[in-house]
Design goal:
single chain, 151 residues, mainly alpha, two-stranded antiparallel sheet
């Protein structure tokens, strides 16, 4: 029987969590309080800015966040006047979501900072390395989605 290594901070998965935490830290320092917005609300805005007119279930699938967390974010954004919803004409049980002008303005204000951060983070990589990294991340995402199917 093969012995598994213990769960440690040096493991790849743990280091990916650290990377995520480091990347979100500026959001909390610069934008969360100033704009009274949560990280999940921001992630919802990013998705809606790029895919207007989708349902909250689709946002959960695209972000990997739990549907209940997306539901709370949608409620908060609706109350803040940052998104609007309409019944899906093809499925009246679903609501489709769009950013309001206020939500669009917030996206346009914060997005350049996120894009600058991403550019800084990825700058040391060659085009080939970025392609390889994207392929590896896609494999990890596929495995994670397989692992969490049915949750």
């Amino acid at each position: 029987m093969t012995r598994r290594p213990p769960l440690t901070p040096e493991m790849v998965g743990f280091r990916l969590l650290k990377l995520t935490n480091l990347l979100t830290r500026p959001f909390f320092g610069k934008f969360a309080k100033q704009h009274a917005i949560t990280l999940t609300e921001w992630r919802t805005i990013v998705v809606l800015a790029n895919r207007p007119g989708i349902a909250s279930q689709d946002i959960a699938a695209l972000t990997g966040l739990h549907p209940m967390n997306i539901s709370r974010a949608v409620t908060g954004l609706r109350k803040a006047g940052r998104l609007r919803d309409e019944r899906d004409p093809e499925n009246h049980r679903r609501s489709l979501l769009w950013l309001t002008d206020s939500g669009q303005r917030l996206f346009q204000e914060i997005a350049p900072h996120s894009e600058q951060q991403a550019a800084f983070l990825l700058e040391p990589f060659s085009e080939d390395e970025l392609y390889q990294l994207a392929a590896m991340v896609d494999k990890l995402l596929a495995r994670a989605e397989e692992f969490t199917a049915g949750d």
